[in-house]
Every structure is written in C-alpha cells, then in structure tokens.
Amino acid sequence: MTDVAGASKSTVGTLYVVATPIGNLDDMSARALKVLADVALIAAEDTRHSIRLLQHFGIDTPLAACHEHNERDEGGRFLTKLLAGENVALVSDAGTPLISDPGYHLVRQARAAGVNVVPVPGACALIAALSAAGLPSDRFIFEGFLPAKAAGRRARLEQVKEEPRTLIFYEAPHRILECLEDMEAVFGGERPALLARELTKTFETLKGLPLAELRAFVAADSNQQRGECVVLVGGWSAPEGEQAISTEAQRVLDLLLAELPLKRAAALAAEITGVRKNLLYQLALEKQKAE
Ligand code: SAM
Question: Which residues form the Tetrapyrrole methylase domain (predicted)?
Fold first, then answer.
C-alpha cells in the first residue's frame, strides 16, 4: 500500500529527499509541493532561504536546520521523529539535496536505522546542463567543485585528463576564468566544452566552444563571470592516428607484464581498462622487442 506521495505505509516515518528549483520556481513539482505540505517537519540547509520558497507556495510546515555543520549531530533529532512514525522532508537551498549539498549523513543515518528514504526528483544543475549541452551523455562523470587553489585544481584536472567520459564540474563565478584557464592548460584548447550559466533564470546562457575559445569568450565579457555555472568538458579521445591507449591503461599493462605471460597480461589489461585486446597485445609486443 502506498500513500499519496508514493511511499509504503509502515510504522516508521519516511524521509523524503525533495528537489527544489535551481532558479525558476515553476520547476517545483506538484509532488514536491504535496510532500512538503504533508510532512511533520522539513530539514532545510538554510531555514531562512527555504521559508521564502514555502511562503511563495503557501506552505506552513515547520522547518529545522540541517546543514553541513550540524548534520552529523542533529541527524538524531530528525531520526527520533522518523522512528516515532512521523514523516520528514529534506531540502537544500536549490536543486537536489546531497548533490554538492548537505544531506548525506542524514540519509545514511536514516537508512542505517531502517527508515524509508524516498527521493522526490526534480531540478539538478548538472543534469539540466548535460541535457542541453550536445556532448555525449550516455556516460559522464560529475566532479563537483574543484579545489579553490590553483595547485590543487590542476592536480585534480590532471587526474581526469584522459577520462573518456564527459566531465561535469560546478564552479563559483569568481573562479570561472582561472578554472577555464587551467582546463585549457591541462586538457588542451581543442577539447569541446560548454559553460551553462544561470540555468532556468533570466540570464540563462549555454555557450559551447572549444576550451581555448570558451576561455577567451569568458575573459572578454565580465558578465560571463557572474551567476551560477556548470562547466562541461568533452571526454578524452586519442589524437587521430595514435593508438587509443591511455597512460593509465599502459600502467596497468606494465604491472601485469611484470607478473604474467604477454598474451594473458594483454587480455587482463583489456578487461580492466576497456582498451581493445589487440591494441594492448601489439603494445606489449613492442615493449618486449624494445627490451
Ligand atoms: N544541489 C544543487 C543541484 O542539484 O544542482 C547544487 C548545489 S551547489 C551548492 C551550487 C552549485 O550548483 C553552483 O555553484 C553552480 O555550480 C551549480 N548551480 C546551481 N544552480 C545553478 C543554475 N541555476 N545554473 C547553473 N549552475 C547552477
């Protein structure tokens, strides 16, 4: 049996993880409104922020703070309510909770305590950006926010330099230019990229260009360095004419070659890395000859 919001009836309450708009209030779903109006308590990242959203929709459910500084300790307070059979909703300031937002500890604690946890999906900046970017969307990775300092940022970018899946990053507006500069330096200026700014809002901009041109576009217009932004970068592919074997795949092959016969090492490396067995076999032969 399920209630109006779609959760199973049981003696413990349900923790609803509710997505809210990332700018345009019309993106609030009918189900999200129903859940927020029906629960006993709303755990909110910033109660002052969420109260405005609730007032806009005429909802007067009580709010309590659940942010990164109190989440671990205060989780118990929400759990007590849930275990007593009351329903609680978790919201963040914008978009989907837990996605570069608080909520992980509460959800983990709730699940560990046997509480039902039900997602109420809706807006999420990375998914909105990806859905309109025109970059491969069958496989992608979300890197969240990069480190604020240049050295850390570059080191993180180096780690995903040869990642074949589409890369998605969140970035603060005051760092967007240096972030694009570092991406150009690490990934190369030719990589396809897209800046999605102020999604669903008045000044929404989606600009897709190779990294060098995108960096120049943002540098030339200070308006592009304002507002909220998502950066997408096309995944790595081997330069034309070169074999598609990343340095990581080569490292795996080297490790296996040290322990196994050539054919077995190439086959296992292919399984681990997803690179074609033939390519790795050829490379292993070349390595053997060169020794
Ligand atoms: N939980 C949110 C989600 O589901 O997307 C993300 C919260 S995170 C603290 C905030 C970051 O998300 C912003 O710095 C920006 O990178 C991205 N973001 C949020 N709203 C956005 C929007 N309307 N347009 C572009 N990026 C946005």
Answer: 14-214
Pairing of strands 116-120, 41-44: unpaired
Q: What pLDDT digit, counting tens, does each position of 161-170 carry?
A: 999 999 999 9
Tell me the C-alpha to C-alpha distance, in Å, between residue 252 and each of 158, 165, 211, 237: 18, 19, 30, 18
Sheet holding 88-91: strands in order across?
Answer: 63-65, 41-44, 88-91, 14-18, 116-120
Phi, psi of 232 (to 5 degrees): -115, 140
Q: Is 96 in the pocket of ligand 1 (CB under 6 A)?
A: yes
233, 195 in Cβ contact below 8 A? Answer: no
pLDDT in tens, 27-72: 999 999 999 999 999 999 999 999 999 999 999 999 999 887 776 7
Residue matched to tokens 């897709």: 208
Return the biggest CA–CA distance within the chain: 75
Write out the two tokens for 252.
Answer: 């795996």
Three-state SS at 251: helix
Distances (CA, A) of 41 to 20, 38, 109, 121, 176: 16, 9, 17, 19, 37
Is residue 90 a contact partner of residue 106, using CB atoms and an 8 Å limit? yes
Candidate of 26, 142, 224, 228 to mutate for ligand 1, largest count of ligand atoms within 8 Å of Cβ: 228
Q: Is 92 in the pocket of ligand 1 (CB under 6 A)?
A: yes
Take residue 286 and report the two structure tokens written for it: 């070349």
User: Is residue 247 scored above 90 in pLDDT?
Assistant: no
Query: Could you read off the pLDDT of 113-161 as tens digits, one per residue?
Result: 999 999 999 999 999 999 999 999 999 999 999 999 999 999 999 999 9
Ligand 1 center–CA 62 separation, angstroms: 25
